[in-house]
Automatic annotation (TrEMBL):
GO BP terms: regulation of DNA-templated transcription
Name used for this protein in its record: Regulatory protein, luxR family
Gene source species: Ruania alba
Molecular function per GO: DNA binding
Gene3D superfamilies from the UniProt entry: Tetratricopeptide repeat domain, Winged helix-like DNA-binding domain superfamily/Winged helix DNA-binding domain
Segment forming the signal sequence: none
Highest taxon of the lineage: Bacteria
Family matches, as Pfam families: GerE, WHD_MalT
Keywords, ordered alphabetically: DNA-binding, Transcription, Transcription regulation
Length: 815
């Protein structure tokens, strides 16, 4: 070694062959920033990074490496330990001078000096950390030839404030952690057969924690099994690290917060202490927590394998902590009105009576809001207790297969119940058995609740299981009838009238519907079945539709089930009624909406029907007022498509209709109307190829389900034009009869001066008394229609509608 080269600092550990460092770590150290901070938890390779750096360069003159010990835990001890290290290096003489003053004078002297302080978290940890950081920062500001490198486990003011005073580089956990390719290279050097994918998974599971990863790979070295990683050694390493944590409050915080899947500051306070926020910052800055931002604020989570090891440590060594955390979480979720999560933590804590009480009181709500959490909680119950509870039996045997089928809840519909249906089922079963709350009751009530909320896929499953359960038990009464009628109504609500009528063809149910003497109007099963039958007939535009609608039983209960009857009547009138009929139906819908729970799906369905009826009644300003204050979500974009079409805003109508078609989970009832409206909008915009494609989709949906009524949303002349290209599609026009009046014939050749748009308006004139009706029918604005009508009258040499019709040969002129 040449005489002018500064010797390699003493005290550095031997550089292990398993060191894997990102290039930017060594590059940052080599850049010689005035202050370089290396920060990471135990086992993140801080000392290895220093050793790798110093072994790869020609060490600068006057470079000192000093690993601090517990002797530095107080301010005076720090300066004494630093003083002794500088004496050993030959930079300070052995004197009785005050340690802090002697060190300060040396560091302030204008000579190059690189001071590397390892284990810097020891400096003043018991007393004086802030003063030490402030003094070092002051010396860095005084001496441009002083370079300080610190390596420690904690975020300190030297790092937080230093960057505002001197040029600072920080090498944090993110830079020190191992990536998938680094793990793959390390495994290769250790002789562990691990694919790149397996290496990336291991890095993700451990958050890139270098020593924990090395522990698993070391334990696997020499094994024949390809891709094996000794996860037991990983768990042991993490457990040992946590057990040896110096501060009890940090150790307990880490153990407690590893129990929930994730946590925010409020949750951490609930399960730990009021100092949770500062502890989160400490553990997060150490790199053991990842942070995810949500609408409610940041959420924190441990890497999966780290959390698994921590939970294992809790179960084996601190069982009282786990129960305490679950009790705290049970109280927290109860205060936040989340019954399913309250139940889950009550079960984890073994609070069985509390848990059973939640199951009894919050069952239907949990089914709607958190079915998967409910299933997880049910699995925690003792087997003997679960088998005695019909609700827990349903949760274990059915919910796990259904999961979150809900499509309505995705858009925030409020859950509702039908007390009449629930009461009828429970009362009948109570007559059959002494216990009125059995599995069949639970399944049926689940189907009812899901249907009322709009979770139709879940409702189909629940009703079919309830019906099958009743038939297995030999039932031949209301229990079977409710299931059958429920299935029919759900299919009808999904826009599948053919399927609904197949269920209604059940002989026993047909007999119940026809036996009006025995079953009065308040018979709920009869009301459900009659509503389903009427809706199916209206959707299919069957000749029996008017009679079926009239036969929906009257009801004194103003609930969601009754409101569905109002909806069916309005749907029928919207396809067959006059303007006066539509006006009366709008009043009925407004009245029904006053009785419904705000935010429910049934309220949304009736509001959409009200908008449609108002537009058809040529009361678009009223419809516009409702739409403007109604936030669109899910299928309710149909309302905007209808209104935009009536106002002649074809691009906006097409966009709104396309949104509905993009919602695959909302497709049932509203896909066909959306396709019809999309075809109409494209036709109005002159995009005839797109109109034909949308019409083709509508025709296919019609043939798949049996529905025809939605075609009435399209002006008849547009339907005729598009249907002429689709063969038998012409027969899909709703409520067509043998003596129906055909579409108006084209204007005769004598009127050759009219433009194509003026001809279109003249053809619509027989069906509409004024520009408002024509505007709606053709998807134009009223002012546009007025302009074209004036041009038509001028070119035909007439002054009135009657004269224009007479000249065009469409109807005789009146005297």
């Amino acid at each position: 070694m040449s005489s002018d080269r500064w010797p390699r600092p003493t005290g550095l550990p031997r550089l292990p062959r398993t060191v894997e460092l990102a290039d930017n770590v060594l590059n940052t150290l080599a850049a010689r920033w005035p202050l370089t901070v290396i920060r990471g938890p135990r086992g993140y390779g801080k000392t290895s990074a220093l050793a790798a750096w110093l072994s790869s360069i020609e060490v600068p003159a006057r470079t000192i490496y000093l690993p601090l010990t517990s002797a530095s835990n107080r301010s005076q001890g720090f300066w004494e330990e630093l003083h002794d290290g500088l004496i050993r290096s030959g930079l300070l003489p052995q004197t009785d001078t005050d340690s802090e003053k002697a060190v300060g004078d040396l560091l302030a002297s204008p000579e190059p000096l690189t001071l590397i302080l390892d284990n810097f978290h020891e400096a003043g940890i018991d007393n004086g950390a802030a003063e030490i950081d402030e003094r070092l920062m002051s010396l860095l500001q005084q001496n441009k030839d002083l370079f300080v490198v610190t390596a420690g486990r904690m975020l300190r003011s030297l790092e937080a404030v230093g960057s505002h005073s001197v040029e600072t580089a920080v090498i944090g956990p993110k830079e020190l952690r191992l990536t998938g390719p680094m793990v793959h290279r390390l495994a290769g050097r250790l002789g562990v057969e691990l694919s790149l994918t397996g290496a990336e998974e291991l890095a993700d599971e451990l958050g890139g924690w270098p020593s924990a990863i090395r522990a698993g790979l070391f334990g696997s070295a020499g094994h024949d099994e390809s891709g094996s990683v000794n996860r037991g050694l990983i768990d042991d390493y993490i457990a040992t690290t946590v057990r040896e944590a110096r501060f009890e409050n940090v150790r307990l915080f880490v153990l407690r917060t590893a129990i929930p899947d994730e946590f925010d500051v409020a949750t951490a306070r609930a399960i730990d202490s009021d100092e949770a926020a500062s502890l989160i910052r400490l553990v997060h800055s150490a790199g053991l927590l990842s942070e995810r931002f949500t609408a409610d604020g940041p959420v924190y989570v441990y890497p999966p394998a780290v959390r698994r090891a921590l939970r294992r440590l809790v179960r084996e060594s601190y069982p009282e902590i786990e129960r305490g955390v679950h009790l705290a979480l049970m109280r927290r979720w109860h205060d936040r009105d989340r019954p399913a999560l309250t139940l889950l933590h009550a079960a984890h804590a073994g609070e069985w009576q509390t848990a059973l009480g939640i199951v009894d009181s919050e069952w239907r709500r949990m089914l709607i809001e958190d079915p998967l959490v409910l299933t997880d909680a049910a699995r925690l119950f003792p087997t003997s207790m679960a088998t005695e509870s019909p609700r827990l039996t349903v949760a274990l045997e059915h919910l796990a297969f259904v999961g979150t089928m809900s499509s309505a809840s995705k858009y925030g519909w409020s859950g509702v119940e039908s007390p009449r249906l629930n009461t009828e089922v429970a009362a009948h079963r109570a007559d059959v058995r002494e216990q009125g709350d059995d599995e069949l009751v639970v399944l049926t009530q689940w189907g009812i609740t899901s249907m009322m909320m709009g979770n139709l896929e879940t409702s189909l499953y629940a009703f079919s299981q309830a019906r099958a359960c009743a038939m297995r038990e030999g039932e031949d009464g209301p229990s079977v009838h409710v299931g059958t009628a429920g299935l029919a109504l759900v299919h009808a609500l999904m826009g599948e009238p053919d399927a609904a009528l197949q269920w209604l063809a059940d002989p026993a149910l047909e007999h119940r519907l026809e036996d009006a003497e025995e079953h009065r109007s308040e018979d709920v099963v009869r009301l459900v079945a009659a509503t389903a039958r009427a809706l199916a007939h209206v959707d299919r535009a069957d000749p029996e539709a008017a009679r079926s609608v009239a036969e929906i039983p009257a009801s004194t209960h103003r609930d969601e089930l009754w409101a569905l009857g109002v909806f069916v009547r309005a749907l029928h009138v919207s396809s067959t009624g006059t303007v006066d009929d539509l006006a009366r139906e709008a009043n009925q819908l407004r009245g029904a909406l006053r009785h419904l729970r705000r935010g429910s799906l049934v309220e949304a369905v009736l509001t959409l029907m009200l908008i449609k009826v108002l537009v058809l009644a040529e009361r678009t300003p009223e419809a516009r007022e409702i739409v403007d204050r109604w936030e669109p979500r899910g299928f309710t974009w149909i309302a905007r498509a209808i209104l935009h079409g009536a106002e002649g805003a074809h691009p906006a109508a097409a966009e709104a209709a396309a949104r509905v078609l993009q919602l695959n989970d909302q497709g049932g009832r509203y896909a066909l109307p959306a396709a019809v409206l999309l075809a109409t909008a494209h036709h109005g915009s002159g995009r005839h190829a797109d109109a034909r494609d949308a019409f083709r989709t509508a025709v296919q949906l019609c043939r798949d389900t049996g529905r025809r009524t939605p075609f009435s949303l399209m002006p008849r002349h547009i339907f005729d034009a598009l249907a002429s290209e689709h063969g038998s599609a012409a027969g899909l026009w709703p409520y067509e009869t043998e003596d129906a009046t055909p579409s108006p014939p084209p204007v005769t050749a004598a009127i050759t001066t009219l433009t194509a748009k003026e001809v279109e308006i003249l053809q619509a004139l027989p069906d509409h008394a004024g520009p408002v009706g024509i505007a709606h029918a053709l998807g134009l604005s009223t002012n546009t229609v007025k302009t074209h009508l004036r041009a038509v009258y001028r070119k035909l040499g007439v002054t009135s509608r009657e004269e224009a019709l007479a000249v065009s040969g469409q109807v005789p002129a009146r005297d």
